[in-house]
Design a protein that fits this description.
Layout (H helix, E strand, L loop, with lengths): L2 H10 L3 H5 L4 H33 L4 H32 L8
Helix pairs in contact: 3-4
């Protein structure tokens, strides 16, 4: 197996001390958001690239232009919801460390 891939996978797995601090609801939510936010941002970036590809290869076709614009709008709304959920958890509900440590 590729040693670089092993390094990436072991860096992404939760550490034992992280799992010990998950005894509360806030701890579970914080751990969940520590995984969801980077995944959502990465997925959003991939969809932006795909939407740009659709827009460019559509050659001015109204259908492909409309589809690409809908994809971009969906990514913007999705990323805004991810960030807004983190802000709500951190400031309104009081779950520490969801967006910043």
């Amino acid at each position: 197996m590729n040693p670089e891939l092993i390094k990436i996978v072991t860096a992404a797995t939760p550490k034992e001390e992280d799992l010990r601090n998950v005894g509360t609801l806030g701890g579970y939510i914080t751990m969940l958001f520590d995984w969801v936010i980077p995944f959502g941002i990465a997925a959003g970036g991939l969809v932006v690239v795909f939407a740009g590809y659709v827009y460019i290869t559509g050659q001015g076709s109204p259908e492909s232009t409309k589809y690409a614009k809908e994809l971009m709008l969906g990514v913007i709304v999705g990323l805004a919801l991810i960030i807004l959920a983190g802000v709500i958890l951190q400031n309104v509900i009081g779950v520490p460390g969801t967006l910043t440590e």
